[in-house]
Structures are given as structure tokens and as C-alpha cells.
Amino acid sequence: MDFFFYGTLRDADVRRQVLGRDLLTAQMEEAVLAGFSPLFVAKATYPTLVASPDGHAPGLLARRLGTADAARLAAFEGPAYCIRTLMVTGRRSGPVAARVFIIRGEARAVGPPWSLDDWQRRFKSTFLATRPFRPR
Predict the structure, then answer these.
(1) How distant, in Å, are the alpha carbons of 27, 59, 70, 95, 103 from that of 41?
(2) What is the CATH number of the domain that holds 109?
(3) Which helix (H) or strand (E) covers residue 76, if one does?
(4) How many angstroms separate the CA atoms of 62 and 29, rounded?
(5) Distance between alpha carbon 64 and the CA centroid of its chain, in Å?
(6) For the chain, which has fewer Cβ within 10 Å, the N-terminal or C-terminal residue?
């Protein structure tokens, strides 16, 4: 299974905590999801995707993940998110259908746009310390 990560799962430490291992370099590549923009979820430090005709969400395409990985990802995202299959464009692969976690319903998104660099600088240490992931 291929997944597209546009938020905190782009961070290697978060991915390692959630998946319980590092992904191989060959399994990952930079990618973009057109037609969406990542914005902060209100009162949170993580993003949601908002449909935007001119938008593009930078991210990470994770290739060939297994069912155990998918279960751990779903547990991390929680019931507020559902999985949609969307076309993303990988830097090496070109267009690829990938699973994307999209928040259910109408999450209140707020600006400015969410960026990984900003999140890592401002929120990462607190996020990892206060939201440790323990799969069930």
C-alpha cells in the first residue's frame, strides 16, 4: 500500500514512533498533492487538508507499506480521520494513487498555511513529549 503524508508523519521521529521502525530510503520520496492546501486544525498544531483549486500540499510518498503499518497509521490518526485514495505526484514516480488521511466532516482550519519546518521548530518537542503513540 502507498500512503501520502502531508503533516507530522513527514517527520522521521514521528514516523518511527508510529510505525515502530524506520522506513527504507527506497520506500520514500517527496511528492505533491494538487488541489489541496495544508492548514492548521483550529486549536491544534497539526494540519488538515482543505480543497483549494490552486493549492498544492507538499508531502512524502511512502511506498509498499503493509497491513500492520496501515493499522498503526489508522490508530495514530484516530476516528476523526478517514482514508481516501487520491492521485499524488512523486518526484521519481510521477502520478501515483496513494492513501491519504483526510479529516472527517468540517474541521475548522485556520491560517497561516501549515509547514513542516515551522512545526518542527515550534511544536515538535512538545508534540512528541505529550502525545506519545502506543499502538493497541
Answers:
(1) 28, 17, 23, 27, 10
(2) 3.10.490.10
(3) helix 67-77
(4) 7
(5) 16
(6) C
